[in-house]
Amino acid sequence: MSLGSRWLVAVANMFVVVHVNGSYQIFAIPVFDLLESFLVLKMDFKPTSFLCVIIRNAYVALTMFIGITFPFFRGLVSFFGGFAFAPTAYFRFSLSWFTNWLCNLTLILAISVLHCSSPIGALRQIILQAKDFQFYS
Fold first, then answer.
1. pLDDT tens sequence across 62-98
2. Which of 78, 91, 120, 129 could form a Cys-Cys staple with 72, CB 3.0–4.6 A?
């Protein structure tokens, strides 16, 4: 990698970290709410900002520990994410009815190929990484 492109890779990685961090926070809001509601309603904790900070940091630390412990965690996420990604989006093109239908059919078929091949590739990666996997080695 040349010296001129290293800063570009560093900036791209920084944007990925910011994007993933924000996405993770939004995605985990229901989990945070569930945990905080359980502690307040069932375990008789007082609803304070301190409780919120402790629960959220503990949850993030737990998921980080799981992600670090299992090196094929990325493969598992890809495997289940491949099933969740389904061709349900239809696009409206400013074309005739038949052309609109044909474009949508083409997109649905292309996305269906991704939908089927993504879990297969992820499962292959899990199998390859799990062959020589050892906990904490």
1. 887 877 777 777 788 778 777 776 555 556 666 788 8
2. 129
pLDDT for 42-56, tens place per residue? Answer: 999 999 999 988 988
Q: What share of the chain is helix, strand, coil (3-state, %, to 5)?
A: 75, 0, 25
Give the 3-state secondary structure of 36-96: HHHHHHCCCCCCCHHHHHHHHHHHHHHHHHHHHHCCCHHHHHHHHHHHHCCCCCCCCCCCC
Both structure tokens of 118: 């993504």
- Is there a contact between 104 and 89 (Cβ–Cβ < 8 Å)? no
